[in-house]
Amino acid sequence: MIKLRIAVLYGGTSAEHEVSVVSARSVLAAVDQDKYDVLPIAITKSGEWLLPARAPGELRAAEGALPEVGDGRAVVLREGGEVLASGREGSPGPVDLVF
Asked: What is the pLDDT of residue 96?
């Protein structure tokens, strides 16, 4: 069975940045890994798109705060669904759906 590749965007420049990270945790936990190949893409508060160093579920926050996007490799989503990333590790390839 061929899996659909889904890019899950989270974070962002709005005041809801941290809420988006928490929502991404729920979405990624609920996705059927047997049917879908999920590629998390984090957006920092300054608007930089990243392949995150840690999955949303691994992000921790200071006591009394919500988690926010940290570090990762810069990424660009090109027309046609191709994801390009910086660094020597190569790019993760195309996606079928962006959520």
From this structure: 92
Amino acid found at 21 = V
Alpha-helical segments (H) within 36-85 = none
> Which pLDDT score, from 0 to 100, does residue 89 have?
73
Reference 43, options 63, 65, 14; nearest CA is: 14
d(CA 1, CA 30): 20
What's the CA gap between 71 and 67, in Å, rounded?
13
Cβ atoms within 10 A of the Cβ of 72, count? 20
Per-block mean pLDDT, blocks of 10 residues, the chain (99 long): 90 91 87 91 90 69 61 79 75 86
Q: What top-level class would CATH report for the domain 4-98?
A: alpha beta
The alpha-helical segments, DSSP class H, found in 1-99 are: 17-30
